[in-house]
Specification:
Length: 510
């Protein structure tokens, strides 16, 4: 952006430029915070939404899974669109779309409208979020980015802790008689302010050698995801008709067709949606498998946990939200210690200890839920939640760098986009699988029993995560910046860690 004064004095130009940079940073950080809080807010309000709209269990799954699926499908594309058409432009388009979708969610008249609006939210978030790190990269000189990334980490932690409490307060407070709707409507003033300030203070930037958009690849990838996801969320409710199995089977040849198309496109013009050569790197392929399995486990846990507390135990939203505070705090603290102190010294072992600690936390939670039954109190959940949170913090923060450690630098942006898309896809699959592993026969004790059964599945998935981690590098190198075009990765570094940690929130996830 050019100055309004055509001949500014050297003494005044530098402070003015600094002010513009920091205002631009505040805008993109606010948008990232809005996205993080929106993710953390939703789950705590799901029982209220279900009662108010008369939504069935499949719709409840899609309110969360639809967002995650749309975000996963659009994440790589969103970063590339910013490189091609301008990061400021795509950021503002994403903010505008996210704000509009939030309004549609808040004024939804039925479950179908809410699900569609949540899918729109996820898609527009996929335009908005990948630009954050790229705008920071283009706006700040290299010697200032460490301080900026530290601030971003603090914003992530604040969003993880404050979102569930804010959601609980807004839902239980029933502002203006609107019930759960303010959890979405609160985004409107924030989004409008971000649009106005972003338009005024964010400078435009593009990648000097941006790749072309692989639109057919996007369409085929989304088709494969939907063929698998839709029957997973609807099958149990409909008693698994034949068409559910047919659709899931059909996702396999579509996925194979996607791989064949991407390989051909890579040979033809070098601009595939997914750089398949990356999967020849053993640590990257294993890391993608870890991200997928980890996302599945988190998706199952967070949705069933919310339903356990509010539908099974009959707790209100505020009590459920406060119960999870020790978990969120434990994640934030352990994540900071993991990255700064433990991983540089012990490498991959920290992630594996984190996975085993999560398994211990799940096992302890299951034991306490069985022992205390319907009379369990929030303070009795605190110890297993802290153990679970510490384990998760040891994993989520350093995982992206571990996966990218052996990736060639010129492919760092593409690789980080794949990693974070796979994490969100895993979360969506986990939410879809809830109807398979969590089948209560009624309210109350039946829900509590189904929750302890689901915890067994979560522990099994975490066991797979632990084993696959042996293929990660023993001493991961950190990828702090993007590849050869100078652009920041689509989702790596601090931004990627943030997206990977989004299921952190209390009674949240996707």
């Amino acid at each position: 952006m050019t100055s309004q004064n055509p001949t500014p004095s050297p003494a005044g130009a530098a402070p003015a430029a600094d002010r513009r940079r920091w205002i631009a940073l505040a805008v993109v950080m606010t948008a990232a915070f809005m996205d993080l809080v929106d993710v953390t807010i939703v789950h705590i309000a799901l029982p209220s939404i279900q009662r108010d709209l008369g939504a069935d269990f499949g719709a409840v799954q899609w309110i969360t899974a639809g967002y995650a699926l749309a975000f996963a499908a659009g994440l790589i594309t969103g970063g590339r669109l910013g490189d091609i058409h301008g990061r400021r432009r795509l950021f503002l388009v994403g903010v505008a779309g996210f704000t509009l979708a939030s309004a549609l969610c808040g004024f939804a008249t039925g479950p179908e409208m809410l699900v569609a609006s949540r899918i729109l939210q996820g898609g527009t978030a996929a335009l908005m979020v990948p630009q954050v790190l790229s705008i920071v990269h283009a706006t700040f000189p290299a010697h200032e980015r460490g301080k900026v990334f530290g601030l971003f980490g603090a914003i992530v932690g604040l969003g993880s802790v404050s979102g569930p409490l804010l959601g609980a307060l807004l839902t239980q407070g029933d502002l203006f008689g609107l019930g759960w709707r303010p959890i979405f409507l609160i985004n409107l003033p924030v989004g409008i302010a971000a649009l106005l300030l972003g338009r005024a203070f964010i400078a435009e930037s593009k990648a000097p050698k941006a790749l072309r958009l692989d639109l057919p690849g996007v369409v085929v990838a989304i088709a494969a995801m939907l063929l698998l996801m839709y029957p997973l969320t609807r099958g149990a409710e409909l008693d698994w008709p034949v068409w559910c199995f047919a659709m899931m089977a059909g996702s396999v040849p579509v996925a194979v067709a996607f791989v064949a198309y991407e390989r051909r496109r890579g040979r033809r013009d070098g601009s595939p949606l997914v750089e398949l050569s990356l999967f020849r790197v053993k640590s990257f392929a294993a890391g993608v498998a870890v991200q997928l399995a980890f996302g599945i486990g988190l998706g199952v846990f967070f949705l069933t946990w919310t339903l356990y507390m509010q539908v099974g135990l009959g707790w209100g939203a505020l009590r459920a939200g406060l119960t999870g505070v020790p978990f969120s705090v434990a994640v934030s603290v352990a994540a900071g210690v993991s990255v700064q102190k433990l991983v540089p010294r012990f490498g991959r072992k920290v992630l594996q200890v984190g996975a085993l600690t999560m398994i211990a936390g799940v096992g302890l939670y299951r034991w306490e839920a069985d022992r205390y039954g319907m009379g369990i109190e929030p303070w009795q959940m605190a110890v297993p939640l802290v153990v679970l949170g510490v384990g998760m913090g040891l994993v989520v923060a350093p995982l992206t760098d571990a996966v990218l450690s052996d990736v060639p630098r010129e492919h760092a942006g593409s690789a980080s986009g794949i990693v974070n898309s796979v994490m969100q896809l895993g979360n969506a699959l986990g939410l879809g699988l809830v109807s398979v592993v969590f089948v209560p026969g009624g309210p109350g004790p039946a829900v509590a029993g189904a929750f302890t059964g689901a915890l067994g599945w979560v522990a099994a998935v975490l066991g797979v995560v632990f084993l696959v981690m042996f293929a990660l590098p023993a001493r991961p190198r950190q990828h702090l910046e993007g590849g050869g075009d100078g652009a920041a990765p689509d989702g790596g570094g601090p931004a990627g860690a943030a997206r990977g940690a989004e299921p952190v929130p209390v009674a949240a996830g996707r």
